[in-house]
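In response to reviewer comment 3 from the previous cycle, which asked for concrete evidence that the modeling workflow produces usable outputs, we include below a single protein chain processed end to end. The sequence was submitted unchanged, and the resulting structure tokens are shown without manual editing.
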Amino acid sequence: MPIQTGPAKIATTARFAFPKKIQLGSWVRIGKLCYLNGEGGIEIGDGTIFAPEVVILSSTHRHKQDSYLPYDEFDEFRPVTIGRGVWLGHRCMIVPGVTIGDGVIVAMGAVVTKDVKAGDIVGGNPATVLSTRDAATIESLVQQERYYLKAVIEKGLSRIKSKPAPNDARP
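The workflow returned the following structure tokens.
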């Protein structure tokens, strides 16, 4: 199992390669059939949610060389860092060396090949910015540790299957 700094929910079908090089923050949820290869190091911030079947790789074969095709015997380690309060959608993939900022949403099926700034909503292959969330709101929520899984565990928050009223004030 990965190194945990606090409460987390990890699906029994989630798989981890090099788990001692994977650091999970508090209030992290790893969904069904996720695969995290921590060989190059993976750091996941507090309050991050993984939908099912997310893939994160932190190492790759060295292909930029002139010894062999398609690659040689060396692996390149490229750490992956995922910020706080991030939502990784169903079957998205994160390639080695990527940093994802706080409050990012990665759409289902997206392939993230470059760093993503805090608050961006990205999708596609390769992932591009679709929209942006309010930076001040994200920073405030992170500072207050207003994470969904934390509220579920500590306050009994449950999903509501209807649309909230516009500007619905939350306690």
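The chain has a mean pLDDT of 93. We consider this sufficient to address the reviewer's concern, and the full set will be provided in the supplementary archive.
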